[in-house]
Amino acid sequence: MTSALENYINRTVAVITSDGRMIVGTLKGFDQTINLILDESHERVFSSSQGVEQVVLGLYIVRGDNVAVIGEIDEETDSALDLGCAHFTAEKIDGLEKT
């Protein structure tokens, strides 16, 4: 996987952590355990009533064992989104239980 991450260096990426947080930033580096270094990063906090709040983090390290998903963000499309007006709802999925 680490060789695939080389394509993302100096590009804007979104990282979903194992605890469900979404962190967006410029990937500056990584190591063999997928520890990530993100620059100019922020966390997107999704709310069903207040849209999306962006919490500035700056230079940020995400531990590799906390990375669930990483993907490149299309900066042009992302900048066109009005995240402040976006509202989200969640529905219960039958058969799933929190353990």
UniProtKB/TrEMBL annotation:
The gene is LSM8. GO terms for molecular function: RNA binding. Residues 1-76 form the Sm domain. It comes from Monodelphis domestica (Gray short-tailed opossum). One of its GO terms (cellular component) is U6 snRNP. It is found in: Nucleus. Pfam families: LSM. This is U6 snRNA-associated Sm-like protein LSm8. Plays role in pre-mRNA splicing as component of the U4/U6-U5 tri-snRNP complex that is involved in spliceosome assembly, and as component of the precatalytic spliceosome (spliceosome B complex). The heptameric LSM2-8 complex binds specifically to the 3'-terminal U-tract of U6 snRNA. Plays a role in pre-mRNA splicing as component of the U4/U6-U5 tri-snRNP complex that is involved in spliceosome assembly, and as component of the precatalytic spliceosome (spliceosome B complex). The heptameric LSM2-8 complex binds specifically to the 3'-terminal U-tract of U6 snRNA.
